[in-house]
């Protein structure tokens, strides 16, 4: 599948979900937007752009730049000699920018398979407070990744450039149930340009993530990514697993610090959903952290004379 077909698929994906949402929710959305002035939108469903690995419905405000550092050490089952994984590291550096309050873009580079990634995110619906006219927030997310490591395919053949691309399309559906608890459900479609037979190029998954606030500035997070069976069945050592992650969020003024535990080494959708190897029960657990820092690049209005 060439790049043009992928982008056409992305446009079709967005159009279908927009149509479906409009058919069932357009009336309630219009009623919400034309309601009394004291009815507003729910904010702070999540306090970061990531639950652990999963992206949230949150996005930088218009003109704001978010700098994201995601770090994973080695697995704890490597033992005391490697200080339970602390001698190893996988790192992703990312930039997220708000073009508007609803539309954002992001780019990143990960040391895992030397992978570049980029995404587009659009907030289709926003949860409203009080009247419950719009009970959830919905964002559409399209991600592309390109790994650049030089691992050969066989003895002589090299991996072609087009085969290095993977694409992920997601619908992020979230609800803030109270000031303490938020939940997100994420149907996912992934296209791999290159797979090992008999794996499928197109796979489907369903993810869920939650945040529970425990103090004014701390919260516990969890997420689980379920890859539907019989799609990626080629043998791995250790065997492929579903991604399960937990986090501890600490808000410190201008940034959010997240301590994380996960069985996924990568932090990019096509990799941690479809390529996670090893289970919690056998000690394939990566300790790490996410750090995000927000910068307002939009110039302030000059004071009136």
Could you explain the architecture of this structure?
By secondary structure, this protein is mostly beta strands. It has one domain (3-31, 56-151, 159-296): Porin (Beta Barrel). It has 2 helices and 12 strands. It is globular, with a radius of gyration of 20 Å.
How does the SSE layout of this entry go?
Blueprint: H1 3-33, E1 64-75, E2 89-98, E3 103-110, E4 115-125, E5 137-147, E6 165-176, E7 181-192, E8 202-213, E9 218-227, E10 243-252, E11 255-262, H2 269-274, E12 286-296
Antiparallel strand pairs: 1-2, 1-12, 2-3, 3-4, 4-5, 5-6, 6-7, 7-8, 8-9, 9-10, 10-11, 11-12
How do you describe this structure in short?
By secondary structure, the chain is mainly β.
Q: What distance lies between the first and last C-alpha atoms, to the nearest angstrom?
A: 59 Å
Number of domains: 1
Q: What overall geometry do the principal axes of the alpha carbons give?
A: globular
What is the count of β-strands? 12
Question: So, CATH architecture?
Answer: Beta Barrel
Overall average pLDDT: 86
Q: Can you tell me the residue ranges where pLDDT is under 50 for at least 5 consecutive residues?
A: 16-38
Rg measurement, Å: 20 Å
Q: Within the CATH hierarchy, at the fold level, what is the topology?
A: Porin
Order of helices and strands: HEEEEEEEEEEEHE
Indicate the percent of residues in helices.
Answer: 10-25%
Percentage of β-strand residues: 35-45%
Structural class: mainly beta
Sheet having the most strands: 12 strands, antiparallel, barrel
CATH class descriptor: Mainly Beta
Which strand order spans the largest sheet, edge to edge or round the barrel? 1-2-3-4-5-6-7-8-9-10-11-12
Q: In DSSP terms, counting alpha (H) and pi (I) runs of 4 or more, how many helices?
A: 2
Kindly report the name of the CATH homologous superfamily. Answer: monomeric porin ompg
